[in-house]
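We treat protein structure as text, and this decision shapes the records that our systems exchange. We quote a single record here, exactly as it is kept in our systems:
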Amino acid sequence: MSTGEFRVTVEMDDPSFPVLTLSGEVDLAVAPTVGAELSALIARHPDGVIIDVSDVSFMDSSGLNVFIVAFKALREYNGRLAIVAANDPIVRLFEIAGLSGLLHVVPSREVAEQSVRGGA
């Protein structure tokens, strides 16, 4: 797990199912960057988006809000969202906020891929 500087990468191996990978801290300072990246992906109307936060060391409510906004934008055209969270404190944050089911938080990239492709 990374505890360093915030990073965001986008994988477009399959444009219908892009993967946004975040590492470091997701807080008020970087939430606009995350939101802009997600908005750009969602504007292409992919079938689903995977957000991998396995290497996120800290997240606050502004990070959660960005994911809620993305979920709502995808839902407008029946797009799907899955969030990969293998880090216990981050998983717990989604659970405490009551968002783990709504945002489909899963433990691995494989499960996320099955989910956004309609297999789970």
Q: What stands out?
A: The helical segments are 31-42, 61-75, 88-96, 109-116. Residues 7-116 form a domain with the Transcription Regulator spoIIAA fold (CATH 3.30.750.24). The CA atoms of residues 11 and 100 lie 23 Å apart.
